[in-house]
Specification:
Length: 502
Amino acid sequence: MTATISPTSANQAISRLHTDLFIGGRWTPAASGARFTVENPATGAPLAEVADADADDARRALQTAADHQTDWAATSPRFRSEILYRAYQLIMDRADEIAAVMTAEMGKPLADARGEVAYGAEFFRWFAEEAVRIGGDHTVTGDGNNRIVVSKQPVGPCILITPWNFPLAMGTRKIGPAIAAGCTMVFKPAELTPLTALLLTEILTEAGLPDGVLNVVTTTDPAAVVGEWMGSGQARKVSFTGSTEVGKILLGQAAETVMRTSMELGGNAPFIVCADADVDRAVDGVMVAKMRNMGQACTAANRIFVHRAVIDEFTEKLTGRMRALVVGDGADDATQVGPLVEAKAVDKVATLVVDALDRGAGATCGGTRPDGPGHFYPPTVLTDVDPDADLMHTEIFGPVAAIIPFGSTDDGSEDDGSIDEVIALANNTPWGLVGYAYTRDIDTADLLSTRLEVGMVGINTGLVSNPAAPFGGVKQSGLGREGGRLGIEEFLDVKYVSRPIP
Ligand code: NAD
């Protein structure tokens, strides 16, 4: 693709950024004047100072969104579509700059950041196309006396909250359908990665988004800012991506005003390698499902169940691939594995690995925390992980592949009950976002697709995320879907008009 971006050009891009709040089309400091520092996780170096909003700023932002809702809802679908399409093109034109900023604040290698730019931009193109396809329905009552005319309307001012792990795509996945549907919004990006969101805000302005439609608030006190919004009665919808823990708080707050919710929460993905799997493909798949974003993805393969008939071959090949990965600063083009996002994240991963090792697991690579600057943890493969180990019940959110054997040591050609066994293991979790399975047998694939308690299944693939697909989970992984044809529905209310037939 394009040439390496040097840290200098990332810093240049960041130094040109607006770092205030964005309310009513204006960049404005927090009323208190407070600011907070954004750091580079690879070096600990400060990158920028960003406005630190409080509840008063939050109130101002939501009031602005509410004031603009009626006018924005009255714009034509084509007008909204064209803004999104222009923003898609601007993101692609500035892909290198956005990737450099994202890598600097979040740590992922530049190649991954560029991948996220393309993925994130695609939500705008997808919803540019959806904006002009919002449908309705018409029927006649059974007695023939009345028309039932069903139309869709924007739900109203929305609260959008995103995590740090995909700083661009989690934003475009929410802002895209909100714009397409005709909703105004307040948007709070994660405090660890606000810079990509601020760059995105500049791009939307350049694309012609009218003042007051998108209002962006950065803060180190999300409970105060979001609490203000949730309790205001002015917002009609909250779309949240983040941890199940915070999602539950928001669901409780949403109940007070019966607010619509979309919740994209945590995961604990099973990755199943059956006895008849193509082992090389399964290793390719787990490298994606486990190592994308250094394992810091809700879709990350958290529990890798491998049939005993193929476990030795799988473990050896996976260990070879993990050992060969180049760990370093994501801004260096050679880097394949960047730092974790903050020191706390490394503490958590290291503690989970120690617990698994204490309970009898082995480590065929990695497993020890390195010294030195930056929040690094090495690619690690753990074998014979005890099903009671803490990492089986916690999102690891790090580059640790935990292998759990199932089935018997024979070749699995007879029905040995291993598929039932692994389905029970996989479903033994309160989460249900995604599951992956590798098998050559279509009936086994069908059985796993049906019985895994998840919102998404990858059969012989380690990547399910796509703007054209309905992303989301069941159980404690969330409510609602983002992307695909369902994505825009989350931002639309149904209105039925009854009219007598003359
Ligand atoms: P987090 O829940 O700590 O934070 C997410 C967002 O919520 C941030 O913007 C944060 O500032 C805000 N927040 C924190 N406390 C809040 C409060 N009391 N009230 C309102 N907002 C609050 O999650 P994180 O650490 O940023 O992200 C990692 C989590 O996100 C993981 O659990 C991961 O699985 C999940 N995630 C889910 C998806 C998905 O689509 N299902 C995608 C990416 C990440």
